[in-house]
Amino acid sequence: MSEPAEDSIFEKALKRLDTARKYATIDEETIQRMQHPIQMLHVSIPVRMDNGTLKIFEGYRVRHDATRGPTKGGIRFHPQVNLDEVKALSLWMTCKCAVLDIPYGGAKGGVIVNPKELSPMELERLSRGFIDKVADFIGPDTDIPAPDVYTNERIMGWMMDEYSTITRRHSPGVITGKPIALGGSLGRSAATGRGAYYCIKELEAKRNWDPHQIRVAVQGFGNAGQSVAQLLHRDGYQIVAVSDSKGGIHRKEGFDIPSLMKTKNESRVLKAVYCEGSVCEAIAADKITNEELLELDVDLLIPAALENAITTENADRIQANVIVEVANGPVTLEADEVLDAKKKLIIPDILANAGGVTVSYFEWVQNRCGDYWSEEKVNTRLEQAMRQQFEVVYQLMEQHQISMRTAAYASALNRIGAAVAATGTARYFSGQE
After folding, report:
1. What's the CATH fold of domain 191-352?
2. What is the pLDDT of residues 124-177, one digit of tens each?
3. Is residue 108 annotated as part of the catalytic site, yes or no?
4. Which of the two ends of the chain, N or C, has the fewest CB atoms closer than 10 A to its terminal CB?
5. Which of 232, 223, 233, 243 is closest to 199 using CA atoms?
6. Architecture of domain 39-182
């Protein structure tokens, strides 16, 4: 069930800043700026369907803050997209880029559509049509989109190609998350999950975990969920439950994650299987709902699907002691309070899933200079960035005895506040400094 509707998602996101500002050294003007996205665009996209009819889709692009650099953020195709959600996601992107010390501000976009109902050609027309409507709003030096929920590298390729057609110049730097053949970066597709994995490895060292004793549940077995699950499985973690939009499977003995990935990616169906070579056999497992997965008796819970998965309705029943937010906003503001009271450690989304935007930044840099890196170099630089900023946030958490989420927002505010102060605030202009 959803949270009470008295506050919008964006307003709830701002409340997290209010909590964190007490632990950040910033001017009041920083908070003022964060409360108001710098630009919001609402577009209508006409698409000629395969049967000859015309359908109009609505889309949004929000640029939240450009104090630290061009804005950056994904484009999602989903039937529940709305302006308030896109505003909140753009704010989170501003904070995420600041947490990882990437010279970007935050943005986000979305189209109200169920892409599963479109043919490949309809999907291409919609993707190109969206870029046609926002082309004056984006650019390699202004606003750089990327994939998000239900968009992928092929869609990003269409979008980059459309922008290049409109501007009459080849512009790979306008979009990240593209196919490798169109200027994408090696390591980008697995970067979100890999970034979360590095955070978990940092926590593993701090808590002296034996991976073979750690039980893990992953809600959302898409690109990011598969990536982090595969890396943890390789290290000996027991992945005992996974799910997709249709439901999940649970097995106390754990799953062979490469087998699940092979079947899921080939058949689009999540099945409990074990594969040897090309031969896969069904294994015994319990079918569970996404809601039941969240409440399993595990050590590590990874919500990697959509926002608002954990609310006040189920927070009391969450048994995992560590939650790693690979999805954006999977724990509501109110649920946060419940989990904090139960001493649960949450590695927040603006840190845990920042691997995607970090490698997107690497891709943009490669596009700009025409020098393309090996996957090893990408992963090495990602690991360095994730581990370094995890330590910054963790130290803030321990120093102030606050939640890791509040510490992450405080770290972000410190960096954004420094950029705001560098151009002058009321203190400077009134002669107080």
Report:
1. Rossmann fold (3.40.50)
2. 999 999 999 999 999 999 999 999 989 999 999 999 999 999 999 999 999 999
3. yes
4. N
5. 232
6. 3-Layer(aba) Sandwich (3.40)
